[in-house]
Amino acid sequence: MERNLPLKPFVFSLPLLIILFLFTIPRFLVSGNIPQNLSMAILLDLLITVPLVYYLIIRKRAIPVFTVIYPFLLGILVAGFIIPPEHQYLLSKIKAIAIPVIELAVISTIIYKIWKLNATFKKTAGVDFYDKLLIASDKIFPGRIGSLLASEIAVFYYLFQWNKKPLNKEFEFSYHKKSGIISVIGVFIFLLLIETFAVHVLVETWNTTIAWILSFLSIYTMFQIISILRSMFHRPIFINYETETLHLNYGFACYTRIPFHHIANIELTRRTPSNDSHVALSVFDLLDTSNLIITLNTEQRLHKFYGMKKDYRSISLFIDEKEQFAKKLQEIISRNQATEK
Question: Do residues 113 and 102 make contact, with C-beta atoms less than 8 angstroms apart?
């Protein structure tokens, strides 16, 4: 029988206590230098003992076994600080082998879990690749890390998705055709590309390594933006009559799910309320626009990529066929109000 003991800090405190003890060892040495045999012992403790202790603590708890790689990776990081450079030959070999193996294992496990989820959600409307990716990632790395991982995988997945998803006009709605956001972001990417080249040339005269790091970050940001735009074709806004839930998506960049009975009002307007309980279904802020606002009778949560979240009571968004969308939502609101009476 699985036990989920309440002392969660203890799960991490004992492994961290061992790491802290190993980190202070050089202070107890008279010479201050760690001999090679002690370096080997410290490395084995960090990469074997600490993960083993962590595993023994979590094995009867509701914590995924896969999270044992956390203390292992932390051990590799700490070993780089404790062990003298002249004794890091084995550590460098472990890094070269273990890190690619872990990356492959994580990706393979996620793919396997997505494949299993396909059977579960095969007939479930409104559940697409990114929804299943979030579930699979959370099963391996619960919380913020799972969201980070899902976001990174989604960047590359949607970057190479060329086929456009056909819409079912009865319950699916696009939000990128008439808003002009793709054209605006296209100009922004072009300007960013020019700026990247200019900054690279300027910084390279001072430090070549930093110039390439900045260029890589800038180019990767462009890939992220392009991937978000491409994902808009595959993640439409969806009225799920089966689960009585409104699925609001903005590519894989942000999403929220609103039960029908929490929708209080819908207004066709371009104004944007300036209050803490209002959010926009977008990640491009001032570059984007909206043409309607949905007001709720209770607080809901907007999920953004990389695990960011924000609670709201009203949300503004853009819908290409806003009149048709508003009509369907108004029918839902009217039906709910009639039921309550």
Answer: no
